[in-house]
Design goal:
This is Phage integrase family protein. It comes from Actinoallomurus acaciae. The structure is a single chain. The chain is mainly alpha-helical. It has a domain at 1-71. Helix content is 49%, strand content 8%. The strands form 2 sheets. The chain has a 3-stranded antiparallel sheet, with no helix packed on it. A two-stranded antiparallel sheet has the order 3-4. It is globular and about 75 Å long.
């Protein structure tokens, strides 16, 4: 993630190119010549919600890398973990800006476990193993890795299920959680309103159908 550069994004297909990961050598951060395995070299298409957020981020990006530190420097693994990742998941006893306690979300959660969750969600949503492996840049073992390929239909299904999970997660937030998200990302307010309206319309339609069922039909 920290190695992503603006030019590595395909706006037409809404996909990120993963070719040269960031590596640390002799105290310097450099672009590696290759991924850990040939399977890691790939294009990763983003579901529409994530593509919208990423493209908005690119509009304001005036540096070589998309994700940088507070002063614009390249994110190192140790600094990223200590300053951003661990506080986000483990909480903070006393925030230095507000002086308030920030409760934990999922203590101990690691970046790599995010990949595990991603693959597990896809499995739960019925995405075939070849599609899950390709998405995460993993080589599928056995004959399946030789004779199976990811079809355009599978790619579309992956984007659809990830989009559905995002939308359901927004609707599952409590009002105060939605308000906190909107405060951080104002553009989410309209998204939440639209999703809530669709959910309410579906609920009203379902209630209407039930009300129209006669006792005899029931």
């Amino acid at each position: 993630m920290s190695a992503l550069q603006p030019h590595e994004y395909d706006e037409i297909n809404r996909a990120i190119r993963v070719v040269e990961p960031l590596a640390e050598a002799q105290g310097q951060l450099v672009k590696a010549k290759r991924t850990k395995s040939p399977a890691g070299k790939r294009w990763v298409q983003l579901p529409s919600f994530l593509a919208d957020l990423y493209e908005a981020l690119l509009e304001d990006c005036d540096r070589s890398f998309v994700f940088v530190g507070e002063k614009g420097g390249v994110l190192r693994r140790s600094n990223f973990g200590r300053r951003f990742w661990r506080p986000a998941w483990d909480g903070v006893a006393r925030d230095r800006e507000t002086g308030k306690r920030i409760p934990p979300i999922l203590p101990g959660f690691t970046f790599h476990e995010g990949r595990h969750s991603h693959r597990t969600w896809l499995a739960d949503d019925g995405i075939p193993e070849i599609g899950r492996a390709a998405r995460l840049g993993q080589k599928m073992r056995g004959m399946g890795g030789i004779y199976e390929h990811v079809t355009p239909e599978t790619k579309e299904r992956i984007l659809a299920v990830l989009q559905a999970r995002w939308e359901s997660s927004l609707l599952a937030l409590r009002p105060q959680e939605q308000a906190a998200l909107v405060a951080l990302l104002p553009r989410m307010e309209e998204t939440i309103k639209q999703l809530t309206a669709v959910q309410q319309a579906a609920a009203n339609q379902g209630a209407k159908i039930i009300a129209q069922i006669s006792p005899i039909d029931a």
